[in-house]
Amino acid sequence: MMSMRFPLQLLAAVVLSTALQAADKNPNVLFIAIDDQNDWIGYLGGHPMAKTPHIDRLARRGTAFTNAHCQAPLCNPSRTSLMTGMRPSTTGIYGLSPWFRTVPELKDLVTLPQYLKQHGGYTTYSTGKIFHGRYGRQKADKEFDKLGPGASGAPYPPSKLIGSTPFGNHKLMDWGVFPHKDQDKGDWKVASWAVDQLDAKPQEPFFMSVGFFLPHVPCYATQKWFDLYPDDDSVLPKILRGGRDDTPRFSWYMHWYLPEVRHKWLEESNQWRNLVRSYLACTSFVDSQVGRVLTALKRNEFDDNTVIVLWSDHGWHIGEKAITGKNTLWDDGTRVPLVFAGPGVKPGQVCAQPAELLDIYPTLTELLKLPENKKLEGHSLMPQLRNAQAERKWPAITTHNHDNHGVRSEHWRFIQYADGSQELYDMRKDPNEWANLAKDPKYGKVIDRHKKFLPEINLKPAPGSKNRILLYDNGNVNWQGDDIASDAPIPGLD
Fold it and tell me: Which helix (H) or strand (E) holds 114?
């Protein structure tokens, strides 16, 4: 009898031990990034026709932030900030270059995946675009353990679909529909690699980052995605003619001379509707790829023990404020989707409190019960993940180039440029930011209250900074190495 009881006791002990280990196991992290994705997402309501069923389902499953904003309206500084937990004004990373590891003072910063590996034993995976471009993907880089395909907007048509554009006829300035297969698209391959890793049952805990390229330009989609959106003017966003008449001239310096075409050219070339439909079509296509990854996560029974974070690096204008593209401090340039779901996150919540991408790093360390990284400049969103109504003491701060900052609170948008000029919008009454209140004396206290949150550290651009660098010094404005006269005509407008 004793010889029979012992194996049973041993088996029970093994089962109990396994159960305890599973209970103590850190949750996995699925980290989903979408490039240049503005608030044209179903749950955000940025465009009434946007169809993103998979992201919307994820939002309902967790806590969805409706007032989340990027740290910089440009890929490299935004992603650097999120992954390092440091503000652009603290690092001096404002342009598309440099890679922060090449800056001596920054080279040893511990990024989010590194921190999870060091303190939580995470195996880290990455595919697509997480850092900007190929940053973090070179042989010498140690950002991730395993790398999948990089980001790509391919396949491309034999020649540009929309023909020549101003400002150098940049190859990225293209969009539309042409015969190709969804399965050939770069984002399909990114999703497929992530699916394959999940199907292979990776060792837990894992951190899997999946970065989609679209709807970044060139934004091409197959016909079925275009068919989701009407080919008439009902698809166009609302704009205000003359909507920049009360904004400072300095606001134009922020995006002075760029590959992105102005709204004037879109209308004159009959391309506005085509671009809007292309962007929406690509958004819906990426949503379908998000769905493929989420399905694989559930199919492989990782669903219940995986924290999912979905975000975009910045917004994108498509005619609003007379421009196309990013590089602004208005909501169209800064507002992004941000969703948390999984263990420790209350489901079915919508949070209107201001949030920053900078908050993702400290939120994950607390959610995963890892040691606090006291060097981070963001603030954990855990109070809001437990109760969406919990008040935030901090607004969201967006910075574009040296000493230009936007402060977004729950009800206000305040902007201060390097020359001291300002903008102020009441976002409850004026969500499109059409009426600048900054010069009205009765709003002086509102401005003072928001100015208190402007960054105390404002470094000049880091060594090697280039591509979309704006400098201001004693009344002199310089854009990418060229001085701008105070009476110079605005490119693409005057």
Answer: helix 112-120
* Set 47, 69, 132, 314: catalytic member: 132
Helix (H, G, I), strand (E, B) or coil at 365: helix
| pLDDT(88) > 70 | yes
pLDDT band, residue 420 (cuts 50/70/90): very high
Helix (H, G, I), strand (E, B), or coil: what is residue 420? coil
Buried b (16+ CB within 10 A) or exposed e, 392-431: bebbbbbbbbbbbbbbbbeebbbbbbbbebbbbbebeeee
Tell me the C-alpha distance between 45 and 433, whole Å.
16
In a domain, 2, yes or no: no
CB hemisphere CA count around 196 (13 angstroms): 13
* CA 347 distance to own-chain centroid: 22
Residue 397 lies in a domain: yes
Q: Which residue has the tokens 């060139």?
A: 218
User: Mapping DSSP to helix (H, G, I), strand (E, B) and coil, where does residue 333 land?
Assistant: helix
Residue 135 lies in a domain: yes
AA letter at 183: Q
In the block, residue with structure tokens 């948008």: 413
- Spatial contact of 239 and 307, defined as CB atoms under 8 Å apart: no
Q: Give the pairing of strands 175-177 and 68-69.
A: unpaired
| 16 domain residue, yes or no | no
423 contacts 438 by C-beta, under 8 angstroms: yes
Number of domains in the chain: 1
Q: Is 70 a catalytic residue?
A: no
Q: State residue 210 phi and psi, 5-degree precision.
A: -130, 110
- Of the residues 75, 219, 282, 351, only one is catalytic, namely 75
Strand ordering across the sheet containing 422-426: 396-399, 405-408, 412-416, 422-426
What pairs with residue 415 in β-bridges? 406, 423
Please, which contacts does 100-108 make with residues 24 or more away whose CB atoms are closer than 8 Å?
A: 100/462, 101/135, 101/141, 102/464, 103/462, 103/463, 103/464, 106/462
Give per-residue pLDDT as tens, 66-75: 999 999 999 9
Q: What is the extent of the structural domain holding 329?
A: 25-484
Identify the CATH number of the domain in which residue 230 sits: 3.40.720.10
10 has a pLDDT exceeding 60? no
Position of tokens 């960054």? 455
Residue 82 φ then ψ, to 5°: -60, -45
